[in-house]
Amino acid sequence: MLLVLCVDLDDDLGRKTGFTTPVIGRDPVEEAAIALATEDPEDSDVNVIFQGLHVYDDLDERDESVEVAVVTGNEDGDVAANREVGDEVDTVLASLSTAEDVTALVITDGAQDESVIPVIRSRVPIDGVRRVVVRQAQNLESMYYTIKQVLDDPETRGTVLIPLGILLLIYPLALIGSALEMPGFVLGTTSALLGLYLISRGLRLGDRLDTAVERARRSLYAGRTTLLAYVVAAALFVLGGVSGTNELEAVRESTAGEVSAPVMLAALVYGSIQWLAAAGVTTSLGQITDEYIAGSLEWRYLNAPFYVVSIALVLRAVSAFFLDRVAISYLAAALTAGTLLGIASTLAFAVLESRYADSEDESESETDAEGRRKADSV
């Protein structure tokens, strides 16, 4: 039997139509092809599936033993997608009720999908590979359509746009010497702006920003305290940066000569750590509050504020030691206190979570036993 295997490595069929894959049999495959063509007529996988149906019909007319199926991977690509294709090929082979030896004809739309051929070959012999290339007019009426397709294709964005954007950002660095001259300034600025735009499109920053705004809007209307906690934490971060900068300036004024890099870092940490710790405690408490309101709070979540305080205590002591403001005995005591605080909170909440879970199990057991007694009495 010849198995006509249509490969959709990035799972356009499943993502766009909701079809469960693998799709096996002529009629289900035709339904899947029509659904994908209706949802996205420009998807090249539509042509792959229809090509598979064409090959199936041609061989079936010759009274050859043939079956057609569509297997998919996932949008992540690489190894994970290949493994999913292999699993679906196993499912297809297991569904074939034939005593004949099965060979495969693999149909793809390009070299990327063909990367899965070794995975397929490890499961079934391959008689051939057919790549579907859509005939297109040589002279496009507009380059805008092509550029728009490239920018909207998730595969192209990650593999082409980001490296190209980085190259365009590197170019202005070569023009630093002539940055004040008008031609160099114009070319450097244009290249930098275009590079930033391509990187933002490649990383889908616009979509992620829209998602973040929508999530913030929903949190605002849902009364989630996390949103307020993040706003307060952002303000505390700014105050921490200002405080750390002021501390660094004070250290520079009080130090004769050049200030070493470790001392500069210690000054920044010493001046800002209390504000950063307050921001961390604020966000963790906001998250804990929302988890409690949602009924999904677990005891171990309560460790977060204690961890933040422990880390802040250790960092402040270390930075103060580098600034020669505390003795080594104080540093040792602070390190010990911070470690003990983290360990104590972990153990305490672990014990509480264990006992709380045990009490819930006992109450459920008593409820089940009471229900069984009532049922027996009836």
From TrEMBL:
Listed name of the protein: DUF373 family protein
Q: Write down the Pfam families for this protein, in alphabetical order.
A: DUF373
Region annotation (Disordered) ranges: 356-378
Positions of transmembrane segments? 158-176, 182-200, 221-243, 263-283, 304-322, 328-352
Residue ranges of coiled coil: none
Q: Which InterPro entries match?
A: DUF373 (IPR007254)
Residue spans with biased composition (Basic and acidic residues)? Answer: 369-378
- Which spans does this entry mark as compositional bias, Acidic residues? 359-368
Keywords, sorted A to Z: Membrane, Transmembrane, Transmembrane helix
